[in-house]
Specification:
The protein is mainly beta and about 230 residues long. The chain has 1 helix and 12 strands; from the N terminus they run H-E-E-E-E-E-E-E-E-E-E-E-E. It comes from Candidatus Glassbacteria bacterium RIFCSPLOWO2_12_FULL_58_11.
């Protein structure tokens, strides 16, 4: 009986998988902390990207299984310091970034056709929250001279949101050299329910007499996020 059921499921899914469309996109991310996270952080900015497969090429509704990555910087500090105590006449930039990096698989359901295509989605994944300090050449863009992670932690996130896509280009004829079939503007709103994490923020690192002190914060990491970008269907 189990073998028959497995064969039946395979026969149902194979046509859908064969007609699955590859989708990819990227955009600018803006985020506002919620809950007790906003007591410590005001705003975050960054960018994200995703790749997915949309199933249901005949139906007006498309179901997309996707993987999403997102980077958010919630505080940057830059200061000028002597290169060393023995070389005070050479200065460097010391840059400290507080950031979050999220990896989220998820499911999206939306309209396949139309001038405006609304959709809803949900996701569940991991959040890496960290603070990193690096040394750069002063007033000269270059690779970091040295860098170190001051503090880091992991937690989970659960996302629920939606948005809409506006098509701006569509391939009307079959051109073998062009695999892209559609380009769309993608605007998404999402509430991320973040788990509890320990982290640093701007001002959490103090230095005195050659010693470093970290004042860590423990709280939830909820966010309301807006992403504005582009989506491509192949």
């Amino acid at each position: 009986m189990r073998n028959v059921l497995a064969v039946a499921i395979t026969l149902v899914l194979l046509p859908a998988l064969a007609l699955a469309r590859l989708e990819a996109g990227a955009g600018l991310s803006l985020a506002w902390p919620e809950s007790d996270f906003k007591d410590h952080v005001e705003f975050a900015w960054g960018g994200g990207a995703r790749i997915g497969y949309g199933i249901g090429s005949v139906s007006p509704v498309v179901v997309t299984f996707f993987g999403d990555i997102n980077y958010l910087n919630y505080g940057r500090e830059r200061r000028i310091e002597p290169f060393s105590t023995t070389i005070p006449d050479v200065v460097v930039d010391v840059v400290t970034d507080n950031y979050m990096f999220m990896v989220d698989p998820g499911l999206s359901i939306g309209l396949r056709y139309g001038p405006v295509r609304p959709y809803g989605e949900m996701s569940f994944g991991l959040t890496y929250i960290a603070t990193k300090t690096r040394i750069e050449n002063h007033s000269l863009a270059s690779e970091p001279i040295a860098e170190s992670t001051n503090f880091s932690d992991f937690t989970y996130n659960l996302g629920l949101g939606g948005g809409f896509k506006i098509p701006v280009w569509r391939k009307n004829i079959d051109v073998k050299l062009i695999e892209l079939s559609e380009a769309l503007i993608d605007i998404k709103f999402c509430y991320l329910k973040g788990g509890e994490a320990e982290y640093l923020k701007k001002g959490s690192i103090s230095r005195q007499s050659g010693q470093v002190r970290y004042e860590t914060i423990l709280s939830k990491t909820d966010l309301f996020q807006v992403r504005i970008g582009a989506s491509f269907v192949f």
